[in-house]
């Protein structure tokens, strides 16, 4: 039987969509959850068994829901115990679901004698998430009145990762062999608040007195994804995070979602009503004003309460008791001012210590060297400045998590509003190691010498912290990856895609050959291409970039990059050249043509490389099989086939056979101005620039080789980033 739980009553404030039931039995069902068609958001559907008395709410066939919390973004369910055997634990959800076990709210518990229970992240990865073990005196049942669960007959521990499912191993503590089945015992994941006192005793009685408890309460966490659920979460520049839920008077904030060995969601967010409002932020006009003046405890002790939107005001009533109160406050303020005098002295001492610490970090972060580098050029000095820490703390509200815009490969990005009301993006490193500091300094040096309309502009940096802070121009329209692969209502037109490709090619070609130094970006990908409100592209994230002398052609370095974009030749040799960026750009061109992610699941494989797949189709004259249907509808098929041949060249296995970015830029310019025409066999654009390139070569045998090496690379260990 399942242990009984106290569940909340149905809320008085409407929390579901109009015309939809707000409860199943005694459990409130707020939107985005629901159990009737049209009453739930995708991925949040539940089942209400109304044949039972009272009706019961289920997440799946055998997982009953006890409560749903909007404020905490949690769902409490009844989950099964794993008793006497090895098995699996499931909350009734699958990988890719919007629900997972909450590490913050649960314990992993094993009850029995001389057992060790392990919680594992899936049978394939075999990563241990949590381990708990018990002992008993002479293998006899412990004292059941002991509810500490501290290792004698019962042991509880925390859980590292919140996943939808786990594998559970229960073994004999002494023999440690898989085929040994314990005489009695069990393991389970349980709500921390519930598992205490009498409930601990009830679970021990269930195990040692052989009663029939089979389920326990477990808390799941849920979230929205900024890309997948765009519509429930909308842009709002007045919000600290830049986002809010669909209801006015609400705010959205990015949360950390652990994923174990799996991939976390792109931008996990949760919503709440703003201060002074209550209700459901996930429905239109769901956050309503709280009338503080009608609360049981009157907020105005000596005066009249006046309710206002999101707040209230107290109007003073002049009376003798009020006069006595004023005198009391005056005396209190006098005493307080004396205490503040002492506090002011202490604060000055703290400020002096903080100033010394900022100077220490400034020197360690090569501040003097960077100052000299910036001031040595009048042009650079006009574009780049060194900010003080106090200014950036004020601009981000002390780096409030509600100001987080997202996370790159080398840091977290915050939205900042400077004193002149200029909106900027501020990048802060995640890890305090010298390698990260050097990468930040590397990015400052490169971007301070770069001036191109399609490269994100660096306004300056702050060196007064343990890890330097970078200040960029604020790009408000998201990434190219989001516009290609997110749930957007207005997909990019073929004309816009072609222009974005040309602008990005110009930026990379500029870095390779037109800047004061040659720069190899080393992490070209659609997620590092930002788009303005007019869809102008901005190349960003130069933390992994390398600068070399203009007369050099390559450099041996540790491999860095991103799955699906990394040049196979660079991966196998460690030699970074300008053609490594060309390969990565070829993958972006393939994304623009197909709207398929760089690594995708197909009917034959779970990790198919877009690069190898596209090249194979092009060489089999089957490219139209994967071409985005929108391009066909807009009449861009002919231009797309020209670009596909350029993709084939950029994705050549040998770097020497790829075009330069300047040649790529020229071809895209010709395509955009309708000077390129595809006649089925040849490309009639700038042939002199492309002499010796592989368009007109017979490479029938190399296609298979590229495909196999690409797949070997995709399945290899993770590339450092």
UniProtKB/TrEMBL annotation:
One of its GO terms (cellular component) is membrane. One of its GO terms (molecular function) is protein serine/threonine kinase activity. It comes from Triticum aestivum (Wheat). It is found in: Membrane. It is a single-pass type I membrane protein. ATP binds at residue 428. Its main location: membrane. The keyword Glycoprotein applies. The lineage of its organism: Eukaryota, Viridiplantae, Streptophyta, Embryophyta, Tracheophyta. Pfam families: EGF_CA (PF07645), GUB_WAK_bind (PF13947), Pkinase (PF00069). GO terms for biological process: cell surface receptor signaling pathway. This is Protein kinase domain-containing protein. Keywords: ATP-binding, Disulfide bond, EGF-like domain, Glycoprotein, Kinase, Membrane, Nucleotide-binding, Serine/threonine-protein kinase, Signal, Transferase, Transmembrane, Transmembrane helix. Residues 399-668 form the Protein kinase domain. CDD domains: EGF_CA (cd00054).
């Amino acid at each position: 039987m399942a242990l009984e739980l106290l569940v909340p009553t149905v809320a008085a404030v409407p929390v579901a969509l109009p015309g939809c039931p707000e409860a199943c039995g005694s459990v409130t069902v707020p939107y985005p959850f629901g159990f009737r068609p049209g009453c739930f958001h995708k991925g949040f559907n539940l089942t209400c068994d109304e044949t039972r008395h009272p009706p019961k709410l289920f997440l799946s066939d055998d997982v009953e829901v006890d409560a749903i919390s909007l404020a905490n973004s949690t769902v409490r369910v009844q989950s099964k115990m794993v008793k006497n055997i090895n098995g699996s634990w499931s909350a009734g959800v699958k990988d890719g679901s919007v629900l997972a076990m909450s590490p913050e709210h649960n314990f992993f518990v094993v009850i029995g004698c001389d057992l060790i229970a392990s919680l594992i992240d899936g049978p394939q990865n075999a990563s241990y998430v949590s381990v708990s073990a018990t002992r008993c005196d002479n293998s006899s049942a412990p004292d059941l009145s002991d509810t500490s669960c501290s290792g004698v007959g019962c042991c509880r521990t925390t859980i590292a990762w919140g996943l939808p499912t786990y594998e559970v191993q229960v073994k004999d503590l002494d023999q440690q062999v898989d085929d040994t089945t314990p005489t009695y015992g069990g393991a389970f994941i349980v709500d921390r608040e519930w598992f205490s006192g009498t409930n601990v005793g009830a679970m021990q009685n269930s195990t040692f007195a052989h009663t029939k408890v089979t389920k326990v309460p477990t808390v799941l966490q849920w979230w929205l994804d900024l890309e997948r659920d765009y519509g429930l979460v909308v842009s709002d520049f007045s919000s600290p995070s830049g986002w809010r839920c669909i209801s006015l008077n609400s705010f959205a904030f990015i949360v950390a979602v652990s994923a174990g060995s799996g991939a976390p969601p792109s931008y996990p967010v949760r919503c709440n009503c703003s201060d002074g409002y209550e209700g459901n932020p996930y429905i239109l006009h769901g956050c309503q004003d709280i009338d503080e003046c009608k609360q049981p405890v009157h907020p105005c002790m000596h005066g009249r309460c006046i309710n206002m939107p999101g707040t209230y005001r107290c109007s003073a009533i002049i009376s003798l008791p009020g006069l006595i109160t004023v005198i009391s406050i005056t005396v209190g303020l006098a005493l307080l001012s004396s205490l503040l005098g002492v506090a002011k002295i202490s604060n000055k001492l703290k400020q002096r210590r903080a100033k010394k610490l900022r100077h220490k970090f400034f020197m360690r972060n090569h501040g003097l060297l960077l100052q000299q580098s910036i001031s040595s050029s009048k042009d650079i000095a006009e574009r780049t400045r060194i900010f003080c820490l106090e200014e950036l703390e004020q601009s981000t509200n002390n780096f409030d998590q509600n100001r987080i815009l997202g996370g790159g490969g080398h840091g977290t990005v915050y939205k900042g509003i400077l004193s002149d009301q200029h909106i900027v993006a501020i990048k802060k490193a995640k890890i305090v190691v010298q390698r990260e500091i050097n990468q930040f300094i590397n990015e400052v040096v490169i971007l301070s010498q770069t001036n191109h309309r399609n490269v994100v502009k660096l306004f300056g940096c702050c060196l007064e912290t343990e890890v330097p802070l970078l200040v960029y121009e604020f790009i408000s329209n998201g990434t190219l990856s989001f516009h290609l692969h997110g749930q957007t209502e207005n997909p990019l037109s073929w004309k816009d895609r072609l222009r974005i490709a040309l602008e990005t090619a110009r930026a990379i070609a500029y870095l390779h050959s037109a800047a004061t130094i040659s720069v190899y970006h080393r992490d070209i990908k659609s997620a590092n291409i930002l788009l303005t409100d007019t869809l102008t592209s901005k190349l960003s994230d130069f933390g992994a970039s390398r600068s070399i002398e203009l007369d050099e052609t390559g450099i041996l370095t540790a491999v860095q990059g991103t799955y699906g974009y990394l040049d196979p030749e660079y991966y196998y040799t460690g030699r970074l050249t300008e053609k490594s960026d060309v390969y990565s750009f070829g993958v972006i061109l393939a994304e623009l043509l197909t709207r398929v992610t760089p690594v995708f699941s197909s009917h034959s494989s779970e990790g198919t490389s877009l690069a190898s797949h596209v090249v194979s189709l092009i060489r089999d004259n089957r490219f139209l099989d994967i071409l985005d249907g929108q391009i066909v509808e807009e009449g861009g098929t002919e231009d797309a086939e020209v670009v596909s041949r350029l993709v084939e060249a950029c994705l050549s296995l040998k770097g020497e056979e790829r075009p330069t970015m300047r040649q790529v830029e020229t071809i895209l310019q010709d395509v955009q101005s309708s000077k390129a025409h595809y006649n089925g066999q040849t490309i009639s654009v700038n042939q002199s620039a492309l002499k010796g390139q592989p368009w007109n070569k017979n490479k029938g045998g190399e296609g298979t080789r590229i495909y196999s090496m690409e797949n070997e690379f995709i399945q290899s260990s993770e590339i450092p980033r």
